[in-house]
Design goal:
This protein is mainly alpha-helical. The chain has 5 helices and 2 strands.
Length: 115
């Protein structure tokens, strides 16, 4: 958690001077004349575990989409693109409705056509 607190502070004020004892946001000590950043502002910038899990899932999903971009191009040698279009739609829809880390971890990836 402390790294997320530090990142949040840096997003708000990259020049802030402070110390943080442990992982508790209440243990921030502002130094060298740094104007304290309200706790609520810092908390609003902290990425949650779900944010991190979704970011990772989207990265993997986007990589799979990029790997198959060529399939849906008009000059692709694939005659029947329907299965590939369905696969790509399933990939794009993969993140819909996910609200917990457990759901993200339980995602079942669609099977690539011909695999």
């Amino acid at each position: 958690m402390s790294i997320e607190i530090l990142r949040a502070i840096q997003k708000i004020n990259p020049d802030a001077s402070y110390t943080l004892d442990g992982d508790n946001i209440d243990n921030i000590v502002w130094v060298n004349g740094t104007t304290p950043i309200p706790k609520a502002d810092i908390e609003a910038k902290i990425r949650t575990e779900l944010d991190i899990a979704m970011e990772d899932l989207r990265f993997k999903r986007n990589s799979k989409l990029a790997e198959t971009d060529w399939v849906v191009l008009p000059d692709s040698p694939i005659a029947d693109k329907t299965a590939w279009q369905n696969y790509r739609t399933e990939l794009r829809d993969l993140t819909n409705g996910l609200t917990t880390v457990e759901q993200v971890d339980a995602v079942i990836w669609p099977t690539k056509p011909g695999a």
